[in-house]
Structures are given as structure tokens and as C-alpha cells.
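This follows on from our talk about sequence and fold. Can you supply me with one protein entry, sequence and fold together? Could you add the entry underneath, on a fresh line?
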Amino acid sequence: MTTVFEIKIWDKKDDNSCFFLLLWDDRRRQLSASLNYCQEIQRCYQRWRQRYTRFYEFTSVKPIGDSGRINPGSGDPCYDLMEAEREFLNAFQRWLGEGEVRKIQQRIRDEFTRVAHLISEDGKGIGTHPSVDIFVACDSIEMERLPWETWELAPEGTPLGRVRIFRSAMDNPDPIACTKPLTACSATPRFFKALGNAHLRKTRILAIFGDDPRLPLQDDWKAVRSLKSIAEVERVTWQPHENHVDIKTKIANAICDQRGWDVLFFAGHSDETTTTGGRLAIAPNISLSISELEEKLTQAREHRLQLAIFNSCSGLSIANSLIKLGLQVIVMREPIRNDVAQSFLQQFCKPLADHRDVYDALLEACQHLQSVEKFAYPSAYLLPSLFNPPGLIPYRIERFDWKKMLQQWLPTRPEAIALGTVLLLSVIPAIQVELLFDIRALVQAVYRNLTNQVPKHTLAPVLLVAIDQESLDQADEAIESTQGKLIDSEYLAKLVRHLYALNAQVIGIYYSRHIYQPRYENLDQAIRSAVEKQNTWFVLATLSCLSVAST
């Protein structure tokens, strides 16, 4: 059982304060609080960032704001950074524990306790654990730089991962507008809906690597390729013969591939921008902005793209741009050294390969940096953030097997009934001869008519000649020895010779009865001559017999 909270934070620079708004129960309930912005937080952040930059030797990183006079430290960069980290986090927790904001913390803890109590009283709740998802959105990038993931909102003794803190986007700059209850449309916009059919085929990952001789990315590619057993992984990178148009076009076309991607991964240099949504360095002296890719990313989202991972520096602008498209986004909020980024990625991919969701994978990778590699990479665990649209379940690579693949081809219940009925009828002889044949003939006739395959003004292949009374009267005048009502064999021989002259291939003569006549030999001779000279077929029939003559 999961309870969802949203926390909106506005930085009101005019009176040097912050306004907090807690929303839950689909925004039908709310709690607000105001808090003076503590200048100590900014000083501690600047001190931590300067020592972080010094330890990781980011000589090109520009200071943010006025850093003032900074204590030079002990001479041990690792010790100095860890000390600055402790001071920064302690000041951050003290600030959030002051005044009205404590009501927000207590409200979340009370809700967690209430849900846990309901589960314990419900017999069906055995094995079920309460959880709380909190989506934090800030209206300024200065507030987003703060480590909101460390906010101590969980009750004492709560297992790690039961209270999950995500980053989100500020959907409205007006605090009053954000208090409006969510409707069916606003709660789950078209882009934000989970893609139900994505698991019916193998997960597809597009990996884009920015090329820089000073930035070896082989280990990044190796980490992503470790997912090949459960996903299709394709790589796009710059080639020496490509100019800026070629590489930008190649990346844009790859992103909006009609087959669709589930995960987009980028490794290389990136940076924050104020107007273009972030910058990606894709090749030597060639950069690509998120705003240039927005249309292609929108198409990719429609083709089921769900997660974007940027294992690169300063990704807050990138995250704010992509979350508005409905994507889950993982970025580093600060500059990150190449070996640290690769260590994070290696640990992050392991839980993903076990089909755990991205929040668990991110949490496990950060725990590894915080504990196992705390002396090698101090403070690195504070950098990653997961941006997620409120209410969207964290992405995971679904298990894929043949049953799921076949499932999409199985007929629905109405289709199965219709198919079974047709198969049953098809084995009944009477149905085969009459119903199914008539249906087939009808379908063929309609098809020929629609496709204009019916020939026009076609001559009939069979000519029927009826010997009527007028013909008999003329025969009586031409042939002196006609025998009353009987058709004289000489008359028939004359007809055969005429048809033979017209090159008739088949001649049929039907008698109502057969009576021998003296001049029958003339008819016999005419028939034999037509058969021998022109290979004409004769069909001679009476009511009592049927005969066929040919060579």
C-alpha cells in the first residue's frame, strides 16, 4: 500500500523566505508552511561545493554566487570534503526541522504510521509493507541543488526504501493553482500514462556516447552492454568523417526510430543552460541542445520511451526539460568525474539486470558510493537524482519470455468464439458445399468487382442453336425427302458442315429420341470428316444415352 505526497517549494527572494505546500489524496488535501531561508545553508553549500571541486580537480567549474572567504582546510582534500559535507547536511536538516515545516514532516510520518496500523489489523495485509512516495518540486534551480533526498521524513526505524523521495517538475508557478484537485485528465496526462504493451517485447536501449579523446567511455559502454542478456542495446557515437550536420542528424533519427526505445542513455560532457534545456557535447567542438531534440524526444515518448539516463555533469536543466515530456530522468546535479560516473553506472546496472526498478537501482548505487567507496569518492552519493512525474511507477526492465510474446497473438474471447464457430461449420459437408461455397463465391465476386477485374463485352464461349419450326419448314423446301416431324439427317449433316467451316472446336447435338434414317450415312460422313481434318470434338446425346466422339 503506497501513499503519494507532493511537496511544492517556492523560493520567494523578495522577502528571503520559502513557501512549502504539501498535497496528498489526489490534491484534495493540503498543508502549507513558510520558512525563512537560512543564509547558513547557502554558505555551507558554497563551502562544500568548493571543497568538492578542489578534491575532484574540476579546474573549469565556475563558483556559484559569492563564496566569500573559505577556510583553506587541513591540507587533506578528502578529510576537508567530508567535513564540509557533514556541516552542510546538518545545517540542512536543522533548517527543515524549524518552524512550520515540521508540520509537513509530522503529517507524512503520521500517514505512514496510520497505513502500517491498517495493514497490521487487516488479515490480508500479511507480508504487505506500507510505503510513501514523495515528489519534491522546486521553482528555482538554486533550490534544486539542495540534497532533498536526504530530508529525514521517515519515522525512526523505518527500513530504507519505504519512504521514497523523487524529484518532480513545478507544474504551475502559482501556489494557488497548485492546490486545485487533480481531475482524470490532469492527474494522468497522455504522456504520463504507463505504456501497457511495452513488456510484450524485449526491452530496447539506445546508448549515445559523446566523443572526447580526454574522456574514455569504454567502461560506460561495458556497463550498458552488461544488460544485453535482457535487452537489445544499440550504440550511436561520432565518427571522424562526420561533420556537425551528419552527427546531429544521426542522433535525432536514432532517437525517433519507429521501432521505439524503452531507455535512452547518454555518457559524455553535459552542462546546464538557461534557455535551451541543457547542452550535450556529442563530438569535438560539436554540441546539441535538448530543445533541438524536443520534437524527436516527443516522438520517442509516443513510441514508448520511458527512462532517460544522463551519466554526465550538471544535468538539472536536462531533467527539467525531459520530465515535462513525461519521462523518468536520472541526472547528476553537479559536475562528476569520469571514474566516479563509471563506478556509479556499474553499480546501477546490476539491480537493473535483476529486474529491479530504477529507484532501487539508484539507491543501491548511491549506498555503494557512500559506504564501500566513501574514501575514494567522497560526497559522490549526493549527486544522482531521479526525476519522476507524480504517480508514475518507477521503471523496471520487465522479464520477457515466449509466453508473453505469444500472448499478444492470442485471440480475444469474441475472436476465439468466432474462429471456433467457423472451424466447426467447415467440417460439416452440407455447410462446405452450400454455405461456405456461396460465401466464397460472393467474396470473390465482390473482390473482382472492387478491383475492376470483370471483363467488359465478353463474347459467350458457347453458342446454343435451337432448331425451331421455321428451320424445319425451310429444310422441307430444301430437302425433298424430309420425313414429317423428324429432323432429317441430311439437314443435320448440312449444319455440321457449316459449323466445321466456322472452325468450331466442340459441337454438341442433343436428340429427344434417336430413330435411324436412310440418309444417316451423310451425317456420319460429315462428323467423321470434321473429326479427322480439324480434330473437332462431338457430343451426341439423347434422353437414353450420351456419347463423345473425337480422334
